[in-house]
Amino acid sequence: MTDLRYPNAVVHFGVFFQGVNHSTIWSDPRSGSQMNHSTFTQLIRTAERGLLDAFFLGEGLRLREQRGRIHDLDVVGRPDALTELATLAGLTDRIGLVATQNTTYNDPADLARRLASLDVLSGGRAAWNVVTTDNAWTGANFRRGGYLDHADRYERAERFVNLARRVWDSWDGSEFAPVDSDDGFFDVEIAPTVPRSPQGHPVIFQAGDSPTGRDFAARSADVIFSAHGSDRHDALAFADDVRRRVVAAGRPEDDVLTFPGTQIVVADTEGEVEEKARWVLEQQVTPAPAHDPVIADIDGTRGAARQGHDPRAIAQEWRRVAEENKFSLRELVLHTSARRGFAGTASQLADELTLWVRSGASSGFNVTPFLVPSGLDDIVDQLVPALQERDAYPTAYVGTTLREHLGLRPPLTRRR
Ligand SMILES: Cc1cc2nc3c(=O)[nH]c(=O)nc-3n(C[C@H](O)[C@H](O)[C@H](O)COP(=O)(O)O)c2cc1C
């Protein structure tokens, strides 16, 4: 029997609109544009109908191109997240609005103001997904004398978030006090420009998986957006590690929620589930090419196969798997991509996701629809009712702010 650490926990959902990348199927006639406002509107309205906690946008600040040719738009190639979310704030009432914004190239006074603006405009529904941005080429946009190393990026991030929190705290009723800093990273005196929102501070998400990133989140964040969203044991190990770090930072162990990004395929019968999951995977890997080379035809290793791992070791392992199974390149990609997220009937998925949150493997899920904008419909129409039948999902929004939906304590600097 699995130990149910949180026997009454409910599933929280965010929707993560990725942009144009390998997890979203753009070749399907049902796909909308990644830029048109109607795509964002349809997706967020479905999410709010399904009582999702948050609408989440990633962001990058430079086009991914090589020698003048765009190779992947990903989270670039669409309007700025804070501007987009401000338009969506006016069309929705309850759902949280999460903007990914990096601390390496932004400026604290400016970003604190823009985030506070979204928080006030939306009646306390804003969140900031703090990222440090690990691609060096983004730095060229900003002429900041290059790119900080990993440790300095996190040190800057922590000082940045602390400074932003002080700015959000510095205007209280008719009183205000400018915020000073001269710490080697920021030499500023910032006066607040936006009054406090109903939730005090925007909710702080963090995305970054290294030990340094996890410690930073344990000290500074409310929620971690992670990539541990496919295997429950892996997610539990991650969540346990985060809980240890949170306690070491002097906070209650449940003070930081974990929200893995994931994909959910729902269908009516087990046969249909298998068929749909296979279809999704094949579409994500792109249509079969006329010539699909076998691994023995290819040599050498180019590029960085996976963030944070040795590309040569990965190539060697994949080569071994391909040779053993006599896979073509495409079959190998299908095989190595096969463990993304969840697939099942609504009832199977409801049981599985409930087990995840009640065993402490995660607090919820940041769901990436594989079809945009209609890919959330099955989840809202089939999975949400199945979770509600199990008392594992709310039947109404619990409050008006994102902090209330997520059951978070007051902002870190505003606790007695
Ligand atoms: C789940 C996840 C989502 C991320 N999303 C973004 C993003 O939208 N924009 C961005 O610039 N960086 C993003 N990052 C990159 C992080 O900000 C960070 O630079 C990178 O993970 C390296 O830090 P780490 O070694 O602590 O993982 C993301 C990272 C993770 C793990």
Q: What is the strand and helix layout of this fold?
A:
Elements: E1 12-17, H1 37-49, E2 54-57, E3 64-66, E4 69-72, H2 81-89, E5 96-102, H3 108-121, E6 126-131, H4 150-169, E7 171-172, E8 175-176, E9 179-182, E10 187-190, E11 203-206, H5 211-220, E12 223-226, H6 232-248, E13 257-262, E14 264-266, H7 270-284, H8 311-325, H9 329-336, E15 342-344, H10 346-359, E16 364-367, H11 377-389, H12 402-405
Parallel strand pairs: 1-2, 1-16, 2-5, 5-6, 6-11, 11-12, 12-13, 13-16, 14-15
Antiparallel strand pairs: 3-4, 7-8, 9-10
Helix pairs in contact: 2-3, 3-4, 4-5, 5-6, 10-11
The chain binds flavin mononucleotide.
Number of helices: 12
Largest sheet: 8 strands, parallel, barrel
Q: Share of helix among residues?
A: 25-40%
Elements, N to C (H/E): EHEEEHEHEHEEEEEHEHEEHHHEHEHH
Outline? globular
How are the strands of the largest sheet arranged? 1-2-5-6-11-12-13-16
Taking all residues together, what is the mean pLDDT?
91
Distance between the termini: 39 Å
Beta-sheet strand percentage?
15-25%
Ligands (ions, cofactors included): flavin mononucleotide
